[in-house]
Amino acid sequence: CLLMLAPVVAAGMAGLRVDFSILLEPLGFAKVLEWVFAIFAFATCGGFQGETTLLVSCKGVVNKTVTAAFAYPFRLNTVEFSAPDPQGCGGTWTDVRLVGNFSSSAQFFVALAALMFPYCIAALVVYMRYNHVYQQNNKFPLTDMIISVLTTFLWLVSTFVWAKALADIKMSTGASIISGIESCKAPGTTCSFVSVTSMGILNVSVVFGLLNMLLWGGNVWLIYKDAKLYNQWNRISESP
């Protein structure tokens, strides 16, 4: 944000005007979409809450429901199943936790989405109030394009890292967890998988990550064309 705003503010406050028509042009409209899609990526991942439910029968307990509630940032190894009864199935039930810590992948994805909020707002302020300065000074479009290239790469990395983590989260909270629970292997104890909260909203977060990547990638070309960097590059290449 500072890279975009500081040089413009230094250029002076004279002749300021807000041009909302820029929002209808490809460069401004793309920035609005990037801002909106970043919000959706943030909300669909960072606001998730769910639980895994098992049905347990053991000493003195018949078909008791036990649950493990989990949420962003998905530190599953800290999530514990509730005990089937206060006596712990006659002493055969020990603390049972989910497996895996996926916080780094989830937080990387959410942090990138959160950082896009102020940058998109700053860019829109530059487009609407300082567009004449933006167009006249090649440093601003060039800085904007470099940031867009970097952001495209970060969205690519964070989305694929988060998609892999999401696949592992589904494995760690699905029916396959029963085989790894030692308490369920105790004599006289049976466990069956009941359900896990639908993670469709997390699938949507991956889709928004991909859309953000495509938007920022397309934004590089829009900046290149709108700021007339294309013509300047041609003149440079044609010069002796």
Q: Main sheet: which strands, in order across?
A: 2-1-3
Q: Count the beta strands.
A: 3
Strand fraction: 5-15%
What low-confidence regions span 5 or more consecutive residues with pLDDT below 50? 2-15, 232-240
Domain module tally? 1
Mean pLDDT: 83
What gross morphology would you assign?
A: rod-shaped
Please give the share of residues in helix: 55-70%
Radius of gyration: 26 Å
SS content category: mainly alpha
Order of helices and strands: HHEEHHHHEHH
State the major sheet.
3 strands, antiparallel
How many DSSP helices? 8
The separation of the N and C termini measures 37 Å
GO cellular component, one term: synaptic vesicle membrane
Pfam families: MARVEL
Family: Belongs to the synaptophysin/synaptobrevin family.
InterPro entries: Marvel, Synaptophysin/porin
Outline of the structure:
The chain contains eight helices and three strands; from the N terminus they run H-H-E-E-H-H-H-H-E-H-H.
Report on this structure.
This is SYPL1 protein. InterPro entries: Marvel (IPR008253), Synaptophysin/porin (IPR001285). The chain crosses the membrane at residues 108-130, 142-163, 201-224. The relative contact order is 0.18. The chain starts with a helix and ends with a helix. It has one domain (26-238). Helix 6 runs antiparallel to helix 7 (200-226). The chain has helices at 2-10, 26-46, 88-91, 103-129, 131-136, 139-173, 200-226, 229-238; strands at residues 49-58, 61-71, 190-196. The chain is built from 8 helices and 3 strands; from the N terminus they run ααββααααβαα. The chain is 58% helix and 12% strand. The protein has a 3-stranded antiparallel beta sheet, with no helix packed on it. The chain is mostly helical and 240 residues long. A hairpin with a 2-residue loop joins strand 1 (49-58) and strand 2 (61-71). It is rod-shaped.
